[in-house]
Amino acid sequence: xxxxxxxxxxxxxxxxxxxxxxxxxxxxxxxxxxxxxxxxxxxxxxxxxxxxxxxxxxxxxxxxxxxxxxxxxxxxxxxxxxxxxxxxxxxxxxxxxxxxxxxxxxxxxxxxxxxxxxxxxxxxxxxxxxxxxxxxxxxxxxxxxxxxxxxxxxxxxxxxxxxxxxxxxxxxxxxxxxxxxxxxxxxxxxxxxxxxxxxxxxxxxxxxxxxxxxxxxxxxxxxxxxxxxxxxxxxxxxxxxxxxxxxxxxxxxxxxxxxxxxxxxxxxxxxxxxxxxxxxxxxxxxxxxxxxxxxxxxxxxxxxxxxxxxxxxxxxxxxxxxxxxxxxxxxxxxxxxxxxxxxxxxxxxxxxxxxxxxxxxxxxxxxxxxxxxxxxxxxxxxxxxxxxxxxxxxxxxxxxxxxxxxx
Length: 407
Known about the structure:
Elements: E1 2-5, H1 11-19, E2 37-42, E3 44-46, E4 52-56, E5 59-64, E6 69-74, E7 79-84, E8 93-97, E9 102-106, E10 112-115, E11 124-126, E12 133-140, E13 143-150, E14 153-159, E15 164-166, E16 185-189, E17 194-196, E18 206-207, E19 214-221, E20 227-228, E21 234-235, E22 238-243, E23 263-271, E24 279-288, E25 308-315, E26 320-326, E27 346-354, E28 367-377, H2 384-391
């Protein structure tokens, strides 16, 4: 721990101005040198998912317009302590995080890897007062720094929000680094139709409209209607998915502990020829160790793949929708071995497009599916039905899983 003391060496600049008549008597009260506040910088934090993060190369600029104080402090140690004089005026202090900082995810063995994070706001004003607490926030796209002033003390604490699984804005086909997650997005299907990108090929985000946002984009055509096939297999359609934890060397998936979260949210757009098929089916699936075969990183030995899911009808819409599923909203379909849902053992998450039988020709079984902003959720403030009522739109037909239209 390193301690730095900021003095009043520049106070004389203001006092000279008063002597020459540019300010009235008592306009600027003299500081009490016996009082100091403390600026603390704990530069590591552990999130609810149990992952530790460290802020590196952090240099903070601290200034006070009333006293002329200006100083730079760097986070060389796990905790940096800076003593500061108390405020003379409200919000006379400012703190600014210089460019060049880095955020690292720290593994249990002490190894680190750089994670992507974007600072959303900076240059925060604050007041040092005794017996007061004033919250300030440095907000990042993958995390936030919470600044709290209390009892003459300013504490800058790192609290990283690692709930975002992937927003695809990095343009690659692997999960956003963070939360101890590793995995690559893949496409798959039942072999009866044509899917693009095809299984086994690179699955990378695309920009498909004027929003210029990257999304995961899948199209397909000529898939068999859902049901048994002559070969004895079952036509289930086509989908995309990702393992949340995957060995870097072997590629073998393993269980990911998501017990610190309440569920998963995402945005999606699902379009298809509205004049050919009135409804299609979209399923969201969460595979756990108990529903995944041993050969694929799970513990299931018989009647596997009956993952916890929500499967619902989707009517034609060119719009994007947002929603979330709590773990309690998901159910097994009933064809496999019944198991209890354990969010501490999640293997993968998947979205599957399915084609129910409306008497349509196979040529009508086409789809255009886009996925964005996949995230873990914690105690959402609104139920999906409340969000739908607020915006007047809904995704999926189950009323309590409707979601607000995004764009």
